Write the structure tokens for this entry.
Amino acid sequence: MDVIKRLRCILGFLTVLPVGGYCSLREAASGAWLFPLVGAVIGALAGSLGYFLQAFLPWSVSAAMAFFFLLFLTGFHHLDGLLDLGDAAMIRGGQRQRQRVMHSPGIGTGAFGVGLFTILVTYLALSSAENIVSALVMAEASAKLSMLLVASMAPPAWSGMGEEFITTLRRSRGAVFLGVMLYLVIVAPLAGIKSVPLLLVILVFSYSMARFSQRLIGGVSGDVLGAANELTRMLALVVLI
């Protein structure tokens, strides 16, 4: 697949945008180095909406609408993963019990608490940004880089849709290197000196997330990658304040 086809593949994989075409998990994994670029596109779309709305609405409302639109573009899938992981983290049983909780419908107090905290801090940090477009471009590119890193740092927690994606990516170290390089090309001109602490935060958090998930449920899953996305976006916006 050429770069344009891979980009369409990843856009269709990570968003609800009608880009057309079918993308298998293996194809998505082989093009995962494009995750930061897709994140930047998502952030630019949501940030542009916020920038447009601030001409008619208070800044706080515009930021909230931009954040909601960003979550909508991703189909709320990553947020769902965060909620599932929040519930699993509150279970005192073994890994099997936590896995069952993550597969069960509904949300508990763990999901509510983690979800509320993440959404609130993300919104407050975003509403403090000087430029909502560049802030969301950098934050979403950071979030997608974290997904790429976490997927490459631990084995799949169970058999399923995410298994092939994670296994393929773990064998493709080149994709991780290319993803980091692409991320720096996108973020460094916007963040300047802050790109250094931003990248360090992403690397440390991604490693910690992979190790935490491995202890919690025995590996990494699609829900864990979604949780990493949401939490990294929040951390990136806080660093950029």
